[in-house]
């Protein structure tokens, strides 16, 4: 009805004219709707193509980025492996050095202990000999050499041991020194024109012998066990 009123308003009153314009308006509307639909479809297709192109470009970028990340990861893994191998080599060299230090130090401990034992057995084991004094001086000289060799080597290599192990070694060396000092006290006093009573001198010598057997023996046992753990001969448990 709106179309008819509009046509009448502009002076078109004939039925044929009215029908013509109605048909024309309808066709025009259909054409407009068709063109709009075609435009929308074309736009939709265009947007779809753009979206697909964007997706393809994005996938290419992702592939490129993934490739770069993979390369970075592989390079990082390679560097980690190189670092690990270098650490293993350094650790192996350190362990080998430590094993050598343990072996050498243990031999010096045994030699020093043997020298101390030999010094104290001169009077008892070889008292009937005429050259006791010469034997005592020679063994005292050997003891001095082995003791200071032990002390120097330990001082230069104590970094390879724990504090507990160092404390035991230092205690052992201190007992070595004190035992040798006590054993030679009667001779030192005699050289200065004094002398210990025979009973007191004999008791001091016996005390040194006991110290060597008990205190030094126990410390050596503990150190041997500690060294075996370091060498992997026995487990930590």
Please characterize this protein's 3D structure:
- With 237 residues, the protein is mainly alpha-helical.
- The protein has a domain at 98-231.
- Helices cover 87% and strands 0% of the residues.
- The chain is built from six helices and no strands.
- It is rod-shaped.
- It starts with a helix and ends in a 6-residue tail after the last helix.
- The mean pLDDT is 77.
Assembly level: single chain
State the helicity in percent bands.
over 70%
Spatial extent as radius of gyration: 52 Å
Structural class: mainly alpha
Mean pLDDT reading: 77
Summarize the helix and strand pattern as letters.
HHHHHH
Regions with pLDDT < 50 over 5+ consecutive residues? none
Instruction: Enumerate how many helices there are, as a single number.
Output: 6
- Percent in strands: under 5%
Task: Itemize the secondary structure elements and their pairings.
Blueprint: H1 2-9, H2 15-125, H3 132-157, H4 163-183, H5 185-191, H6 198-231
Helix pairs in contact: 2-3, 2-4, 2-6, 3-4, 4-6
């Amino acid at each position: 009805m709106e179309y008819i009123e509009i046509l009448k308003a502009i002076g078109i009153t004939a039925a044929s004219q009215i029908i013509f314009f109605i048909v024309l308006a309808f066709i025009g509307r259909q054409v407009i709707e068709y063109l709009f639909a075609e435009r929308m479809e074309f736009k939709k297709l265009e947007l779809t193509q753009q979206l697909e192109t964007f997706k393809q470009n994005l996938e290419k970028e992702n592939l490129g980025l993934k490739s770069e990340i993979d390369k970075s990861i592989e390079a990082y893994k390679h560097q980690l492996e190189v670092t690990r191998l270098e650490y293993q080599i350094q650790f192996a060299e350190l362990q080998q050095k430590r094993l050598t230090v343990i072996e050498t130090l243990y031999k010096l401990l045994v030699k020093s202990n043997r020298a101390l034992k030999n010094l104290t057995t001169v009077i008892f084991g070889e008292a009937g000999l005429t050259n006791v004094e010469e034997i005592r001086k020679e063994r005292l000289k050997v003891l001095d050499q082995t003791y200071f060799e032990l002390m120097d080597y330990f001082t230069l290599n104590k970094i390879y041991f724990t504090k507990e192990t160092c404390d035991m070694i230092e205690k052992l060396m201190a007992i070595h020194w004190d035992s040798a000092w006590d054993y030679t006290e009667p001779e030192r006093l005699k050289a200065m024109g004094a002398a210990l009573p025979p009973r007191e001198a004999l008791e001091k010598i016996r005390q040194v012998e006991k110290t060597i057997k008990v205190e030094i023996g126990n410390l050596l046992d503990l150190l041997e066990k500690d060294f075996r753990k370091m060498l992997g001969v026995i487990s930590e448990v």
